[in-house]
Amino acid sequence: MTDSTAPQTPTLATLHAWHAGLAQAMLNVGEPTFCERLADALASLVPIESILLGLECKGLPPRPLYQRGIPTEYREALIERYYARGYMLDPFCLALENGLAEGFYHLSEIAPDDFFNSEYYRTYYLKCGSVEDAHFIVDLGGQRKVSLCVYQGRSGACFSSAELDLLRAAEPLVRELLRQFDERGGLARSLDGRSPEPLHSPMPAAFNQQIRAAFMNFGSDRLTEREREIAHLLLRGHSAKSSAKVLEISPETVRMHRKNLYTKLEIGSQAELFALFIDWLTS
Question: What does the alpha-carbon distance between residue 275 and residue 159 come to, in Å, rounded to a whole number?
Answer without folding.
Answer: 30
